[in-house]
Design goal:
By secondary structure, the protein is α/β, with parallel strands linked by helices. 49% of the residues lie in helices and 13% in strands. α2 packs parallel to α3 and α6 packs across α20.
Length: 475
């Protein structure tokens, strides 16, 4: 519901406009003079102000300038019984959207039409700003690529949860495409026509993050020169993506929990409770379960954001997708370089498929972008790959040298154990009984290790993917 402020020293006009606008579905506040109007603007954010030009304390043109200084997002329509060319010129100069004549035959229907036009124009401008922000922020990968069983399971999960309004927590290592999954959920949801707004919670201090998320009122801190909406309000009707939520401070976690519980926000320096309607999708590359155990992440917030968990698999666990990703990036960066799509040498592809990709899809994309930029022939040769890929060898126990400074044996063995469990599950399509046989252990012991390494969901995804593949095969 758009919020409108009506300012007029004539009581009958205030009451008329209030009645007409409320019947049209707007939330309306009134002020009998400019001083009261300014106080209201400092406490609230209005979508539109309708103000008389001639008033006893502050004339309408001066009020227009002061309101624009405090709240630039507020649109203004001026009304006057003494219209002159100079009045119109000054009104438009200082940002008024329209100037209407107030006389004995004042047409309220015309006012309603103009109000609707001004607010529609405001909404279009906001959507345009959000689109520009989205284009600046969006991941350089245009869509999720992958036909492996793990990715098929992810697609199926995204399609299932998109139709709901539940909060989603996307986990996975850096570079696995968590924001792409969030965008896919939004684009497939009933909220697709509304904004998708993303923010990296780890990129801001607590104070800046709070003002970005919740907005602020003029004068609430140094540099707050005008009222400003936050991203929760900007995402109204759509989706807000809270990336790296595990990086937030305990006090910020309390404020986020309150928003999820109350579905309202309070701007920094403000006193008004502002209802918000947006779906929350959060993401992290950290182990929130362990953080909850350590006391560094609130368990009540964890349960709020993890209603539906989705795990993005690392690239090393879905090597079958590497050729498709490589071709996708070759097409993308060849096009950007305005040249025919480069081919790739068989030996080059072998190096790419043999590497373990600690930086996941993002690292692969950067590698192909670099290769396209350096390659002068029609196909990418191995010499265009970084040394770390050309010299990489899968690590075995015989390759390990014991450094003079020591070696973290427990961490190495733990990672090795985790990798072998995942490989066994991949081979068996997530069947834990068969995977336990391959690893020569009991199913109970395997399940204990799944919990130890936090990969029980990975096993479930592989099992679901295997069932999905069987269904497709039978069709």
């Amino acid at each position: 519901m758009e919020k409108i402020l009506v300012v007029d020293d004539e009581r009958s006009m205030r009451e008329l406009l209030e009645l007409v606008l409320k019947r049209s579905g707007y939330s309306v506040h009134t002020a009998e003079n400019g001083t009261t109007a300014l106080d209201l603007v400092r406490q609230n954010v209005y979508d539109l102000m309708i103000s008389d030009v001639k008033m006893p304390d502050i004339n309408g043109i001066d009020l227009l300038q002061k309101v624009k200084a405090v709240s630039p997002e507020t649109q203004v329509i001026m009304i006057t019984a003494f219209a002159t060319v100079d009045t119109a010129r000054r009104a438009w100069k200082f940002g008024a959207e329209d100037l209407l004549i107030k006389d004995a035959g004042f047409d309220v229907e015309e006012l309603k039409i103009q109000v609707a036009k001004v607010l529609e124009k405001k909404h279009l401008r906001q959507e345009n700003d959000l689109l520009k922000r989205e284009l600046r922020q969006r991941n350089s990968l245009d869509n999720i690529i992958g036909r492996s069983p793990l990715m098929q399971a992810v697609y199926q999960m995204i399609e299932t949860v998109a139709a709901t309004t539940s909060t989603v927590l996307i986990t996975g290592e850096s570079g696995t495409g968590k924001e792409l999954a969030a965008r896919a959920i939004h684009n497939m949801s009933p909220r697709a026509a509304a904004p998708f707004v993303s923010i990296n919670c780890g990129a801001f201090t607590e104070t800046l993050l709070e003002s970005e998320l919740f907005g602020y009122m003029k004068g609430s801190f140094t540099g707050a020169v005008a009222n400003r909406k936050g991203l929760f309000e900007a995402a109204e009707g759509g989706t807000i993506f809270l990336d790296e939520i595990g990086e937030t401070t305990p006090s910020m976690q309390v404020k986020m929990l309150r928003v999820l519980q109350e579905r309202s926000i309070r701007r920094v320096g403000g006193i008004e409770e502002i209802p918000v309607d947006c779906r929350v999708v959060a993401a992290t590359n950290r182990d929130l379960t362990r953080m909850v155990e350590d006391g560094t992440f609130r368990n009540d917030l964890f349960y709020r954001i993890s209603v539906i968990p989705i795990e993005m698999p690392p690239l090393r666990a879905r090597g079958v997708d590497i050729p498709d990703l490589v071709r996708h990036f070759l097409e993308k960066y060849s096009a950007q370089a305005t040249r025919p799509t480069l081919d790739i040498a068989e030996e080059t592809m072998h190096y790419l498929e043999s590497y373990d990709w600690p930086g996941n899809v993002r690292e692969l994309e950067n590698t192909i972008e670099r290769a396209v930029a350096l390659e002068r022939t029609v196909r990418v040769e191995p010499e265009r790959l970084p040394e770390r890929i050309l010299k990489y060898k899968p690590r075995t126990i015989t390759d390990v040298d014991l450094p003079e400074e020591g070696f973290h044996l427990e961490a190495y063995l733990s990672q090795l154990e985790r990798d072998y469990i995942i490989r066994a599950l991949q081979r068996t399509g997530g069947n834990q009984t068969r995977a336990a046989e391959i690893l020569n252990m009991s199913v109970r012991s395997l399940r204990h290790l799944l919990d130890k390494h936090k990969i029980r969901q990975t096993a479930s995804l592989l099992r679901e993917a295997g069932g999905l593949s069987d269904t497709v095969a039978h069709k």
